[in-house]
Design goal:
2 domains; elongated; 91 residues; alpha+beta; 3-stranded mixed β-sheet; YefM-like fold; 5 helices; single chain
């Protein structure tokens, strides 16, 4: 995830449009009296977090991921980069 920015709430209120631009670069933590009260995320980052939580909350999927990780650690799979996959797809 991208680097977070922290902004006190009294500065955030009048700068909402600017904050929404900052969110494109990373999460923004809004504070009140120095304590975090909210985090503003880019929608893609939010969806990614929700998807990850849903996946990790699914016992069957966690089991499949653990099995895959064991097989990968045992050398049964070769790690491919995105470029490798594209090259293989082109033939």
């Amino acid at each position: 995830m991208k680097t977070a920015t922290t902004i006190p709430i009294d500065l955030a209120r009048p700068r909402l449009t600017e904050i929404l631009e900052i969110v494109r670069r990373g999460p923004v933590t809004i504070t009140k009296d120095g304590a975090p009260v909210a985090v503003v995320l880019d929608p893609e980052d939010y969806e990614s977090l929700v998807t990850t939580l849903e996946m990790l909350s699914n016992p069957e999927l966690r089991s499949q991921l653990a099995a895959y990780e064991r097989r990968r650690a045992a050398g049964e799979f070769e790690w491919l980069t995105e470029e490798d996959v594209e090259r293989l797809a082109r033939g």
